[in-house]
Amino acid sequence: MSKHWRTAALLLVVGVALAALWGAEQMRSRQAIERELAARYQQAFFDAVGHVENVEVLLSKGIAASTPGQLAEIFSDLRQQAFAAQANLTLLPLVQGTLIETSKFLTQVGDFGFTLAKKAAKGTPPSDDEMSLIRRMREEAARISAALHEIQREAAKGSMPWGELQSRTRRRLRQEEQPDAGFTRLEDHFQKIPVIQYDGPFSDHVLQRKPRGLTGDDVSEEEAERIALEFVAPERRDGYRAEAVRRVEGRIPAYGIVVRPEETGVEVVMDVSVKGGHVVWMLTKRDVKEAILSFDEAIERARAFLRERGFEGMEATYLTEAENVAVIPFVPVKGGVRIYPDLVKVSVALDNGEIVGFEAMGYLMAHHERKIPAPEITPDEARERVAMGLEVTGEVRLAVIPTETLDEVLTWEVPASLGGDRFLVYINAQTGDEEQILRIVRTSEGETTL
Question: Dihedral through CA 202, CA 279, CA 253, CA 100, nearest 10?
Answer without folding.
Answer: -50
